From TrEMBL:
NCBIfam families: PRK06292.1-1 (NF004939). Binds 1 FAD per subunit. GO terms for molecular function: flavin adenine dinucleotide binding; NAD(P)H dehydrogenase (quinone) activity. It comes from Agaribacter marinus. FAD binds at residues 54, 143-145, 313. Keywords: FAD, Flavoprotein, NAD, Nucleotide-binding. Disulfide bonds join 45-50. Gene3D superfamilies: 3.30.390.30, FAD/NAD(P)-binding domain (3.50.50.60), Fe,Mn superoxide dismutase (SOD) domain (1.10.287.990). This is Dihydrolipoyl dehydrogenase. It holds the Pfam family Pyr_redox_2. Residues 9-328 form the FAD/NAD(P)-binding domain.
């Protein structure tokens, strides 16, 4: 197939969140751009990621709260689940979000947009699936990621699904075996369970979400296992497509009896793989890491000292929406400036899992600090007796914060608990401002609020760093139950 050949200043492969950010920045330096998209417009986040998953979680949480009504002394029954209505809202709202993205793309200059898959022929040349050839002075790889599917899952045949399938359902299924207790598996597994779907969550090596702190992980394992069948360290012996669905033969723990269960679907949530193995990188002179990702500088997004940049999930570094957006803009800016590439500081790392209780990680993780041999102190708090959390009957949680013994600075934290999407933001902001734990404790804390739990963890950290008094056990001047 021979097609047209065209030269541009900047070619961007992928029109997801990072590609769109890159485009907006690149546009400031040139009108000679090719913005290439092989799949559907609309972004992973809006189509099959962040937004539809949160849309499915919302009714599950609302219904779950109703299960607590009787504990408050409220009479009434837990509402029935109307799977068709729930999925209709998920699809409609998702389409609304996707519509906003498409409106943005509609406003992009038509002469810049190309719908085709791109592959490198050499460092400056891309071949397109429509037969055309693009040569470019600078190239941005913003190709995102796709679900990683272990070969054994193919035994589930047509009953193997991923997040790409879930949000197009017309109705909720009766049962789902969720594989992978990472972020996606936890969010979707717990949600489906709460919507009345029979769920078994199959994990590996007792991993749970992004947690690396063994104490927080143990708390999370205990909490989720108390709610639904979660085989965090089981052994799956066979996966088989049977007439009624997919049959899983497994041991719930290595010493348990083998058992079989049949599910409507097997949902693979076993990590994501960067879309860089299928874009002809072998035809370039780019240096690749052991994982096959081009070696790049996260402060500039530049691959080695080349004219090629990589942003978003494609670099497999911090595969989150706000990072994809920041990285895309930086890649676009630097592609425009090349060869005068500049560095920009990155934000404090912040991750939230929208499970219930929510899991959050901020700053340096327990593993990072331990592996680097950094001398750090740990403060902690349980939310089980935290005043406001108990009032609201959301008193499940455990937070561990890490501080620099030498400087007194807050370094990071791992946590599970109520309203932790908000507490994690406060922590990330203070870390980014390089505040010491003592400084943070000078900030106002209202009463009675869940933030008072955070204050207890900070006080415990201050003491662990040898920088403060023993935290008051029952801080009556903080208000009852603080
Ligand atoms: C179920 C789920 C839930 C999530 N929830 C959250 C959340 O709550 N919060 C959060 O921060 N993050 C969340 N994420 C992660 C977030 O969605 C991603 O980090 C983000 O969307 C990545 O953006 P991107 O631009 O790198 O990739 P994408 O948006 O996937 O864009 C990449 C684009 O490149 C195109 N492409 C690929 N290869 C080629 C090629 N060879 N030629 C041309 N085009 C190509 C693709 O078709 C795609 O459109 C979630 C992800 C999933 C899957
Ligand atoms: N709330 C959010 O911000 C959010 C939500 C969803 C996804 N995401 C992003 O998407 C990325 C991908 O999510 P994910 O959950 O697919 O990946 P993940 O890396 O978070 O988790 C994958 C899990 O699968 C397990 N696993 C691997 N092979 C397995 C097997 N054969 N059987 C059982 N378990 C197995 C791993 O041990 C790991 O715990 C996340 O890292 C995150 O960046 C973010």
């Amino acid at each position: 197939m021979s097609g047209m050949s065209r030269h541009v200043d900047i070619a961007i492969i992928g029109t997801g969140t990072s590609g769109m950010g890159a485009y907006r920045e690149a546009r400031k330096s040139t009108d000679s751009i090719a913005l290439i998209e092989g799949g559907e417009y609309g972004t992973t986040c809006a189509r099959v990621g962040c937004m539809p998953s949160k849309l499915l979680i919302a009714p599950a949480e609302a219904r779950h709260r109703a299960e607590y009504f009787s504990k408050f002394g409220l009479k009434g029954t837990v509402p029935d689940v109307d799977g068709i209505a729930i999925m209709k809202r998920v699809r409609e709202e998702r389409d609304r979000f996707v519509g906003f993205v498409k409106e943005d793309i509609n406003d992009f200059d038509p002469k810049h947009k190309i719908q085709a898959y791109a592959e490198f022929v050499d460092d400056n040349t891309l071949t397109l699936s429509n037969g055309d050839l693009i040569t470019a002075g600078r190239i941005i790889i913003a190709t995102g990621s796709r679900p990683n599917i272990p070969a054994i899952f193919n035994e589930a045949e047509d009953r193997l699904i991923t997040n790409d399938d879930v949000f197009s359902w017309q109705d909720l299924p009766k049962s789902v075996a969720v594989f992978g207790a990472g972020v996606i598996g936890l969010e979707l597994g717990q949600t489906l369970h709460r919507l009345g779907v029979k769920v078994h969550l199959f994990g590996a090596r007792d991993a749970v979400g992004p947690l690396s702190d063994p104490e927080v992980r143990d708390y999370a394992l205990k909490t989720f296992k108390a709610e639904f069948p979660f085989h965090s360290n089981g052994q799956v012996n066979k996966i088989q497509r049977v007439e009624t669905g997919v049959q899983i033969t497994f041991k719930a723990t290595p010493d348990a009896e083998e058992q079989t269960e049949v599910f409507d679907y097997l949902l693979a949530a076993t990590g994501r793989r960067a879309n860089v193995d299928n874009i002809g990188l072998e035809n370039t002179t780019l240096k690749l890491s052991e994982r096959g990702i081009p070696v790049y500088n996260p402060l500039s997004m530049q691959c080695s000292d080349s004219h090629i940049f990589i942003a978003g999930d494609a670099n497999a570094d911090i595969p989150l929406l706000h990072e994809a957006s920041d990285e895309g803009r930086l890649a676009g800016e630097n592609a425009g400036r090349y060869p005068n590439v500049i560095h920009r500081s990155r934000k404090t790392v912040l991750g939230v899992v929208f499970s219930d209780p929510q899991i959050a990680t901020v700053g340096k993780s327990f593993n990072q600090l331990t592996e680097k041999g950094i001398d750090f102190a740990v403060g902690s708090v349980s939310f089980e007796n935290q005043g406001r959390s108990r009032v609201m009957l959301v008193n499940k949680g455990f937070m561990r914060l890490y501080g620099d013994t030498e400087t007194g600075a807050l370094l990071g934290g791992e946590m599970i608990g109520p309203s932790h999407e908000h507490l994690a933001h406060l922590l990330a902001w203070t870390i980014q401002m390089r505040m010491t734990v003592e400084d943070i404790l000078q900030m106002p804390f209202y009463h009675p609020v869940i933030e008072e739990g955070l204050r207890s963890a900070l006080r415990s950290l201050l003491q662990a760093m040898g920088r403060g008094p023993q935290p008051p056990l029952h801080c009556i001047d903080c208000g009852p139950g603080a």
